[in-house]
Specification:
Elements: E1 3-5, E2 16-19, H1 20-25, E3 27-32, H2 35-45, E4 49-62, E5 68-82, E6 89-104, E7 129-131, E8 135-137, H3 138-149, H4 172-182
Length: 183
């Protein structure tokens, strides 16, 4: 199995590539972000700090008309951010699950085969991600899962937004009503 991991840069927050054929056979990989990578990701997402980030990724081959790889990402982390109401810093955990399928671009065709009657599941309606270089970048899916889990306007536990009630503007007819009362 060939896999590479590069140092973080601003163009790619996390890169961890695996070969499509190796992923199709099935992999389970646990990736933990180091301090430099967490700092880069925190900056990109506008967090005060990303104190922990771990992803457990499993891949498996999907049987069907075309060779697909199913990717499942289970993400956990600890983030420090500003409260969306008080702007006070607070820390909290986050977690996310991401499921998707990948297909190699060489396996894409416009040809439609008559399969007769078939029962469709909701998952059958999702288009697979197209892989053009024979490698699946798992880091990209970790960042996608983090983006789904992270709320940039999260509130500290117990904080409630209280809308300040402004005094209603007087009606233009209020002055006429006052004149009428005064006479």
């Amino acid at each position: 199995m060939s896999k590479t991991e590069t140092q973080p840069d601003s163009a790619n927050l996390w890169e961890h590539k695996v070969r499509f054929d190796a992923a199709r056979k099935g992999l389970q990989i646990t990736l933990t972000a180091d301090e430099a990578r967490r700092g880069l990701i925190a900056e990109a997402f506008g967090m005060i700090s990303l104190d922990a980030l771990t992803a457990v990724i499993t891949t498996s081959g999907v049987t069907g008309l075309k060779p697909l790889v199913h990717v499942h990402v289970a993400l956990t982390g600890e983030v420090t951010q500003e409260c969306g109401v008080t702007l006070d810093p607070f820390s909290h955990g986050l977690s996310a699950q991401l499921d998707l399928d990948c297909i190699q671009s060489a396996d894409l065709t416009d040809e439609v085969k008559d399969l007769g009657e078939a029962e469709l599941r909701l998952d059958d309606l999702d288009e697979p991600d197209v892989i053009s270089n024979g490698q699946i970048d798992l880091g990209l899916y970790i960042i996608e899962a983090l983006g789904e889990a992270y709320d940039p306007f999260a509130r500290k536990p117990g904080v409630v937004f209280e809308d300040i009630e402004a005094e209603p503007e007087p009606s233009p007819f209020a002055a006429l009503a006052k004149l009428k009362r005064d006479t």
